[in-house]
Specification:
Number of helices: 11
Organism: Hydrogenimonas cancrithermarum
Function: Catalyzes the reduction of 1-pyrroline-5-carboxylate (PCA) to L-proline.
Structural class: alpha/beta
Helix content: 40-55%
Distance between the termini: 40 Å
Shape: elongated
Strand content: 15-25%
Keywords: Amino-acid biosynthesis, Cytoplasm, NADP, Oxidoreductase, Proline biosynthesis
Radius of gyration: 21 Å
Subcellular location: Cytoplasm
Number of strands: 10
CATH architecture of the largest domain: 3-Layer(aba) Sandwich
Enzyme class: oxidoreductase
Bound molecules: 1,4-dihydronicotinamide adenine dinucleotide, (2S)-3,4-dihydro-2H-pyrrole-2-carboxylic acid
CATH class of the largest domain: Alpha Beta
CATH superfamily of the largest domain: NAD(P)-binding Rossmann-like Domain
CATH topology of the largest domain: Rossmann fold
Length: 252
């Protein structure tokens, strides 16, 4: 399949690396040198084109610019795409339709793990393109199709922003280890191993049961867990998701 990726940034590079084996890619951007640096990082040859009346007629286009750049980017495109895929956070299909003409629209919300083909990507949009969208985004990890844009915006707050929240947990755990006397490098190795081991645990067990399995009566975990509850960790995460979701909504 021929695919055009617009906006040669981090998310575009992850997608291009995942998609280049099976698809013919054209990368579109404003700066020729940047486009060359981008394509040098790909294994196969990808075409490049400048964002200047770039013809998208009948093409599948993946929009990877920052949300604020939508209008400016759209001004550099002409024609009507077959499908417009967009990874722009908080940018609804109505806004995409106003900016770029296409037969079908699909929103995708990946995360930074796309770099290692381990993204959790949420998808929504025209049902006719559901299977195609799932196939494309499976090249960078797992996908979940949801029926509404509201669900995709909530998913943005959970799994799109999620790596930043887990990074805070990782850094704080390492800081705790260092505070008690561990070397920084050792504390980081422990946290890295902890996260690597946690993924298979979570896919086999409910979090509450995992916690019960770790917590011995009157033991270390119970003491630490009580401190997390006392400090409102659970409420803080719930509020983080609420605030991040609200940020995706149009400003009143
Ligand atoms: N970074 C992340 O973890 C995630 C990012 N996203 C979405 O991905 C999109 C891209 O984000 P990143 O790749 O992180 O950003 P980035 O800054 O690495 O890439 C954005 C690219 O767009 C280009 N660009 C900016 N203004 C432009 C314009 N007016 N015309 C043409 N190109 C323009 C930039 O040169 C850059 O190459 C954003 O819309 C963001 O909401 C979605 C999920 C996760
Ligand atoms: O912070 C943001 O707006 C983007 C969307 C999800 C992750 N990064």
């Amino acid at each position: 399949m021929k695919l055009t990726i617009v906006g040669p940034g981090k998310m575009a590079l992850a997608l291009a690396k995942g998609l280049e084996k099976e698809h013919e890619l054209t990368i579109v951007g404003r700066d020729g040198e940047k486009l060359l640096r981008f394509t040098k990082q790909l294994g196969k040859h990808a075409k490049t084109a400048l964002l200047d009346k770039y013809e998208i007629d009948g093409q599948s286009v993946i929009l990877c610019v920052k949300p604020y750049a939508l209008k400016e980017t759209a001004a550099g495109l002409k024609g009507k795409a077959e499908t417009l895929y967009s990874v722009l956070a908080g940018t609804g299909i109505a806004a995409l339709k106003k900016a770029v003409k296409a037969e079908n629209y699909v929103r995708a919300m990946p995360n930074l793990a796309a770099e290692f083909f381990s993204s959790m990507t949420t998808l929504t949009g025209d049902g006719a393109k559901k299977e195609e969208a799932e196939r494309l985004f499976t090249s960078i990890g797992q996908t979940l199709w949801v029926e509404t844009e509201k669900e995709l915006d909530i998913a943005t707050a959970v799994a799109g922003s999620g790596p930043a929240y887990l990074a805070l947990v990782a850094e704080a755990l390492a800081d705790g280890g260092v505070k008690e006397g561990l070397k920084r490098a050792d504390a980081m190795k422990l946290v890295e191993g902890l996260f690597a081991g946690f993924a298979p645990l979570l896919s086999h067990s409910h979090p509450a049961l995992l916690k019960d399995g770790v917590m011995s009566p009157g033991g270390t975990t119970a003491a630490g867990y009580a401190a997390l509850e006392k400090n409102g960790t659970r409420a803080a995460f719930i509020e983080a998701v609420e605030k991040a979701y609200r940020r995706t909504l149009p400003k009143a």
